[in-house]
Amino acid sequence: MIQGLDHVQLxxxxxxxxxxxxxxxxxxxxxxxxxxxxxxxxxxxxFELSDGRGVHLGVEEPFLPAKKAHPAFRVATLDSxxxxxxxxxxxxxxxxSVPEVRRFHSADPFGNRLEFQEAAEGRR
Length: 124
Fold this sequence. Notes:
Elements: E1 7-12, H1 17-27, E2 31-33, H2 37-40, E3 45-48, E4 54-59, E5 72-74, H3 78-87, E6 93-95, E7 101-107, E8 113-119
Parallel strand pairs: 1-4, 5-8
Antiparallel strand pairs: 2-3, 3-4, 6-7, 7-8
C-alpha cells in the first residue's frame, strides 16, 4: 500500500523561523519551499531535500523537542557535516551500533534529535 515517504515533520517553537533557516537552510543546505498560504499563517517552515522529499517544521505549543523520535538523513560527506555542526555549536555523537553504517546524532537549534548517516553500498 505505501509507495514512499513524502515528508517528515518536526516541531519548533513559535517565532524561531530565523534560527530554522540558518540551521536547515544554510548549515544543512536544504532548500526552503513556500508553504500554502493557509498553512503559512500557522508559522513554521518547509524545506526540501534534493530528491524532492520534505522536512516540515511546524509550530507546536507548548513546544517539547523530540529527544528519541528522529529523522535519519543520508549524507555524502558525513565527516565534513559533523565538523560543520560541531563548529556551529551543535552536538555530534558518533554511534557505531549499526553494522556497516557510519552515523552520528545531533540536534537542531530547538533540541530535536537528528541522525546523519553514510550507508554501506547497496543498502537502501
